[in-house]
Amino acid sequence: MQAEKNWRLAVQQNPTDANAFATLxxxxxxxEKYQEAITAYKKAITLTPKLPGVQLNLGLAEFKLGRFDEAxxxxxxxxxxxxxxxxxxxLLGMSYYGAKRFEQAVKHLKVAAESDPANLQLHQxxxxxxxWAKQYSCALxxxxxxxxxxxxxxxxxxxxxxxxDGLGQTxxxxxxxxxxxxxxxxEPNVHxxxxxxxxKKHKYSEAKAAMQEELAINPANPQALAYLGDIAMxxxxxxxxxxLLEKAVKLKNDLPIAYLxxxxxxxxxxxxxxxxxxxxxxxxxxxxxxxAHYRMAKxxxxxxxxxxxxxxxxxxxxxxxxxxxxxxxxMSDSPP
Length: 336
Description:
Elements: H1 2-13, H2 18-30, H3 34-47, H4 54-64, H5 68-81, H6 86-98, H7 102-115, H8 120-132, H9 136-149, H10 154-166, H11 170-183, H12 190-200, H13 204-217, H14 222-234, H15 238-251, H16 256-268, H17 272-285, H18 291-302, H19 306-318, H20 327-331
Helix pairs in contact: 1-2, 2-3, 2-4, 3-4, 4-5, 4-6, 5-6, 6-7, 7-8, 8-9, 8-10, 9-10, 10-11, 11-12, 12-13, 12-14, 13-14, 14-15, 15-16, 16-17, 16-18, 17-18, 18-19
């Protein structure tokens, strides 16, 4: 606190001294007074735009406050001033990651990770950036490096599985999830991951068993409930499916598969208005999938609304073949 008082006095007495403002910012940052530190750093930059180290410290303070776009601006300037700065590059990559700008994060974190190959945390952030950027080969390479350093890491098995799934290597992805389940049988989402991959391969009995294991660990897992409901639909048991689907959407109201199946069940019960509402919700959540349009078209045709039916059939023809999606987007609400 005495240092803060001294430097506050210094900037009052020397209001054009950029170094004094920079030092005050540093002292305030050490006291975790980041907003006040930012004000001091910006004043220093205004007085002397190229004062060494200030943009880096400003970027770090913005990062500490979770203001990642502002951190990117400051750290980009810091890196431009000193392209060899490991700290500036690492923080810039981390800031891009925090801002969910994953391609840019990968670019900088790769360079940083090459400079510090033993830094496990750095490789983890790089791997996840690669995963969210859909650079699956990069993600897989990084997760393998993590496993070499920490072979019992459940998280690395899970994330390796996600990368393998993104590469279309489903059997290998299942094996990674199974390794995670062996290491930590009660780890949330592991059994869901296994079940989802079996579901993608149309191995519904195996998928069902895995989803039930997931629900034994976490009865409120909405994805597991939704896919278990879908499996019940595929087994021609709509009576079992509907309560599972209904519970899933009460827990998480953005599951297209649940609304799609609910719409189908309601349509089979001639509850056309409710069915259309569910299918419209499914379509809004995932506009790229044709199945909701197809089912709505059938309902409109049964209702005698030929124009609406033809509009939906036309939309079906426009869309590409159904893409079930990768497990990264099934297991995660959004990027970290």
